[in-house]
Amino acid sequence: MIELAETYLGNITENSSLSQRIEKALSDENCLKVYLNHTDSGKGRIHTHTTCGKEIGIVKSRDWSLQEGDVFETQQGKLLLVHLEQQKLMVIRFNLPVNHPINLVHLGHVLGNHHWPIIVQNDKLYVHLAADEEVIEKTIRNFSIPGLEISYEWRRSGDKLVFCENKDHHH
User: Fold this and answer.
1) Which residues, including other chains, have CB under 8 Å from residue 139's CB and lie 6 or more apart?
2) Is the pTM of the predicted complex or chain greater than 0.90?
3) Within a 10 A sphere around the Cβ of 47, how many other Cβ atoms?
4) Are 9 and 66 in contact (CB under 8 A)?
5) Is 17 exposed, middle or buried (0-12, 13-18, 19+ CB in 10 A)?
6) CA-to-CA distance for 111 and 117, rounded, in angstroms?
7) In the predicted model, is pLDDT for residue 163 greater than 80?
């Protein structure tokens, strides 16, 4: 039977008494753990399995995303500790000056048209892997922009990038 977690208690990184409560629940085997990906963390209803294989449903508002260390209480009175998986990102850099900026405008247009969220930080363009990375990479390489380099980075939950995805956007 699925266990339901609807009562949000807080985050262990911000609340030391909650952290102590988790420690006790872990020693009493009254604490469940889940590992969620970035996409699931923003959903209002999440169906997943705990590290011990128990089926669990998390219900929360879509107004906020789960963070590493968030804690819920299940209807059965168990604590649920949320962990976030690492986030894999595509990273685009240029090792040569871009002589034809219109190519970058076209690239940005195509990324946006495919709804592949991006963030620009310093000299890097991060692309959220919202589709198969081979498809995204092939699409970008088709532009044949001189000096364009594609690599990948893994981000821990504490230093992940948050891509703003407009779910209300329609064509």
Assistant:
1) 110, 114
2) no
3) 11
4) no
5) exposed
6) 7
7) no
